[in-house]
Amino acid sequence: MNHFGRLILMGVILLGIGACSSSPKPSPLSAPAEAIPAAASHNQDGLQLFADGKIDLAGNAFKAALTEDPDMAEAHYNLALTLFSSGYRDEAEQHFLEAANLAPGHKIIWDSPALRPYGSPRLLPKDEDLSGAAGEMPNALDNMF
């Protein structure tokens, strides 16, 4: 192989390594099939707004979904993504943890790069308040979005 061929091969390898090492940004989740219709509708609105880059409006739609169904884990997770994107890390942490607590075993929520810095969320009784659980978000998420 000539010098030019080796340079091309090296470039392809480096591009491949870079593509493999970058992790995709978390995406908001659709409402589950059993969701309350009004909550699912608000969540769907939030998904479209998020896709359009209207993060604050998406957050409002996810909050509306939670007004209709406070136990929709996907809406908590989605709201957490918007809050984190907007710099509200403490509030985002509360919603990431609430999503995990409401959806034990939900692979996307529990395996999310957004949730990883918090470790394994502890399951909370329904009436326990998360307001005291919020802390400083680890720097590992600084480049998530």
Keywords:
single chain, 145 residues, mainly alpha, Serine Threonine Protein Phosphatase 5, Tetratricopeptide repeat, 6 helices, 54% helix, disordered C terminus
Task: Explain the layout of strands and helices.
Blueprint: H1 3-21, H2 37-51, H3 55-68, H4 73-85, H5 89-102, H6 107-110
Task: Summarize the structure in words.
The structure is a single chain. By secondary structure, this protein is an all-alpha fold. It has one domain: Serine Threonine Protein Phosphatase 5, Tetratricopeptide repeat, CATH 1.25.40. It is 54% helix and 0% strand. The chain contains 6 helices and no strands. Helix 3 (55-68) runs antiparallel to helix 4 and helix 4 (73-85) runs antiparallel to helix 5. The longest helix is centred in the first third of the chain and has 19 residues, at 3-21. The chain is globular, with a radius of gyration of 19 Å. It starts with a helix and ends in a 35-residue tail after the last helix. Residues 5-21 and 128-143 have low confidence and may be disordered.
Approximately how much helix is present in the residues? Answer: 40-55%
Question: How large is the radius of gyration?
Answer: 19 Å
Order of helices and strands: HHHHHH
Instruction: State the CATH topology.
Output: Serine Threonine Protein Phosphatase 5, Tetratricopeptide repeat
Query: Which shape, going by the Cα principal axes?
Result: globular
CATH-derived architecture: Alpha Horseshoe
* Helix-strand category: mainly alpha
Which assembly state applies to the chains in this document? single chain
Question: What is the CATH level 1 assignment?
Answer: Mainly Alpha
